[in-house]
Amino acid sequence: MTDRKKCDVAVIGSGPGGYVAAIKAAQLGKSVALIEKDLLGGCCLNVGCIPTKTLLSNAAVLHQIRRASEFGISTGPISFHYDQMKKRKDQVIGKIRTGLEGLIRSNKIVIYRGTAQFESPHLLKIMGPDSLYLEAEKIVIATGSVPLDIRAFPCDHQRILNSTSILEVTETPKSLAIVGGGYIGCEFASLFAELGVKVTILEALPTILTAQGPTIAQFMTRAFTSRGVDIQTNVMVKAIENKKTHVHITLADGKTMDADLALVSVGRKVYTEGLELEKAGLKTNDKGFIETDDRMETEVRGIYAIGDVTGKWMLAHVASHQGIVAASNAADVEAHIHYEAVPAVVFTSPEIATVGLSLEQAQKAGYDATAGSYPFQALGKAQAAMETEGFAQVISDKKTGQILGAVVIGHEASNLIGEMALAIQNELTLESVIETIHAHPTIAEAWHEAALIANETPINFPPKAKR
């Protein structure tokens, strides 16, 4: 390997963090190289956000068609073809990936195909279709994460699947056991339950969606149960065997169960394999993360890390924002990351979205916090659309009225959360939302009403009974 190239900024990984960092650095006048060992777009585009949401969109259409008679619409017999749903998912990914490559190249970014490893803090060795040494003044690590494999029952990607291999299934099973009731497991539970699969969630903790807090966990447990999902909590899976025609699952207490397929969704681990960080003077912490400051710079000056490898928030949109901060600093434009207003969405049915602090977190942080909740059942638009499941909740400081957090469960929650993210990022108060005219009839009116309730001045909700 004798070929040697130079650039101002090298970005390792082309996921939602990496490609955004590359574009930002290029916008700021730097020569940029983007290194990708697999498919452009990383996990999010190819095996994460986009494919799962495409499949969930298919299921949502099916759900609406099944309810057609409630809207006074007659249909014939309803059936679906999962292989065609999977084909549409692949087409969506391919179209976006083609567009992404065009976007990257339009910013005069050089794409190198292969794996990268450090030779020194400013020198990378690229191995693969493109084989060369790349010298860079600044380097951004954006290598992401991969599904966590459990040694006791490793995925064989035939009947014991992870969140990547389950996307390649071309027909629905009759039954599916999901090991892990976090947001990934719950999204797949939503998908397959809608498609008529008998879904069982096996969760080691006392509730599903523990990270999302007790309010959400309790609501979604009821919602899932009403949809026929069997939720088993406080259970440990000891072994999963592929019996060729089905999987046989053994729990720690000795009980067993069978299912057509098993999905292991117990989390993700950061991917730094093969980078040889030590040659750059870098190391990971005891959890395997690369630590950074609020400029996204590592302990080695000129080397930045963004996305899942930092262990902050394993969310695509956080990686993108970190990418902008890292690229700005790599181009000598001062920028800092803030995590006070990170929206998080779980694309279950109904959708869940949160931002900022929960009521429990706000109280624990010392705020005299209060919560105002408004049910979708009381919204005219929700009644018209027959989407009355859910609520919007605003958490605020009683003394100042500052909005500290928000939760919304229900129709279009993923879109609704943007208003509260903007409010928290800009330290707005309940008054700011109350004095904003919200269009009627819309689901977004729920924020206006929830803010009024938190302010103890409800208009379209009965006042609290005085003691």
Overall SS class? alpha/beta
Number of helices: 12
Low-confidence stretches: none
Helical content, roughly?
25-40%
Question: What can you see in these coordinates?
Answer:
α3 (49-66) packs across α4 and α3 packs parallel to α5. It is globular, with a radius of gyration of 24 Å. Strands 1, 2, 3, 4, 5, 6 and 17 form a seven-stranded mixed β-sheet that branches. The protein is 30% helix and 24% strand. The protein has helices at residues 18-27, 42-47, 49-66, 82-106, 183-194, 214-226, 316-330, 359-364, 380-385, 413-425, 430-434, 445-454; strands at residues 4-12, 32-36, 110-113, 115-120, 123-127, 132-141, 145-147, 160-161, 175-179, 198-202, 230-232, 237-242, 247-251, 256-259, 261-264, 268-270, 303-305, 344-346, 352-356, 369-375, 390-397, 403-410. By secondary structure, the chain is α/β, with parallel strands linked by helices. It starts with a strand and ends in a 13-residue tail after the last helix. The protein has three domains: 4-146 and 270-330, FAD/NAD(P)-binding domain (3-Layer(bba) Sandwich), CATH 3.50.50; 160-266, 3-Layer(bba) Sandwich (FAD/NAD(P)-binding domain), CATH 3.50.50.60; 344-454, FAD/NAD-linked reductase, C-terminal dimerisation domain (Enolase-like, domain 1, 2-Layer Sandwich), CATH 3.30.390. β10 (198-202), α6 and β11 (230-232) form a beta-alpha-beta unit.
